[in-house]
Amino acid sequence: MLKSFAAAAAALIVASGFGQAQAQDYPSRPITMIVPFSAGGPTDTVTRLVAEAMGKDLGQQIVVENVGGAGGTLGAGRVAKADKDGYTLLLHHIGMATSATLYRKLPYDTLNAFDYVGLVTDVPMTLVARSDFEPKDLKGLIEYVKTNKDKVTYANAGVGAASHLCGMLFMSKIETPLTTVPYKGTGPAMTDLVGKQVDFMCDQTTNTTNQIKSGKIKAYVTTTKQRVASLPDIPTAEEAGLPGFEVGIWHGIYAPKGTSPEIIKKLTASLQKALKDPTVVQRFADLGTQPSSEADATPDALKAKLTSEIDRWAPVIKAAGVYAD
After folding, report:
1. What is the pLDDT of residue 137?
2. Under DSSP, is residue 265 helix (H, G, I), strand (E, B) or coil?
3. What's the domain range around 265?
């Protein structure tokens, strides 16, 4: 028994030493950062900006891979099952929290299948419509959709997407169910909105700011407490008469559970540095958002955010009766 104990202890020491050596050499090859949505969407935009800055800091390229489908759960599931070596990461948004209620069966345990790196940003949402949509302001929009609820079409990027969540909250606030048109990503949804194939949607400023400024779509409100600096003429929902219609699409970076703490520390430090990069700060500002603070770009802050958001959205989703298999 003593020999067995000694052998086990020796194995642990060897494994620990190997893990530390692995962490010291990390990264020695390119890293894959999975974004669980289609290319060209708002989360994809955020991911590519952060991945480029972190890659420069770490001295290795971070390759962004789009693994869309099932409201982001396919990409998250891929990372949950990946090797615990720090070479496969996940950048996900608020859908990480809402999928815990939306999906009856997930291929992973949301809170316990990942290690946490840190929060990246909290992006405001905008309620927007095709450029020739009849309502002129939020009051007119609410009146119009209540009267024409069977004809109005609301676009979203699929179950669990940010646009889907924002839409559910809007319908809940105005107490009116609407015909929804789900797409496989925000990119194609926005294309059809610009092309006047659907009436309106709710989406992140990272995807709507340029379209609003160019006049390709019209904006009614932002879903923030204060006006968005890049869209100063757009009122908040509360200013326009719809208090409580507030939602921000926060993003965080995750690694498979069991990743070396030393590697997580390196990734967190790199994230914090990337979020101070002048190019990232400016590009985020252009898109209507800002980087998370150093205090929020930490594992503890991300875990706390995920936990609180699961609790916040569960009753909204249950009340709407929207579930996916």
Report:
1. 97
2. helix
3. 25-123+249-320
Whether residue 30 is found in the same domain as residue 118: yes
Q: For 72-81, what is each residue's pLDDT tens digit?
A: 899 999 999 9
- Residue 300 tokens, joined: 């503890």
| d(C-alpha 254, C-alpha 200), whole Å | 32
Among all chains, which residue has been given the structure tokens 């646009």?
A: 163
Residues contacting 89, CB < 8 A, separation 6+: 31, 32, 33, 34, 62, 79, 117, 253, 254, 255, 267
Cβ neighbours for 173, distance < 8 A, ≥ 6 positions apart? 242, 244, 245
* Residue 29: CATH number of its domain: 3.40.190.150
The position carrying tokens 């204060």 is 226
Contact 222, 205 (CB under 8 A): yes
For residues 70 and 45, membership in a common domain is answered with yes
**Structural domain count of the chain:** 2
DSSP state letter for 135: -
Q: Are residues 216 and 152 in the same domain?
A: yes
Same-domain status, 80 and 103: yes
9-18, 88-97, 265-274, 275-284, range with the lowest pLDDT? 9-18
Tokens of 135: 């309502």
Band of pLDDT at residue 1, cut at 50, 70 and 90: low
* 158 phi/psi in degrees, rounded to 5: 110, 165
Closest by Cα among 268, 263, 265 to 18: 263
Residue 116 has pLDDT above 60, yes or no: yes
Sign of CA dihedral 323, 111, 166, 219: negative
Give, for 35, the enclosing helix (H) or strand (E).
strand 31-35
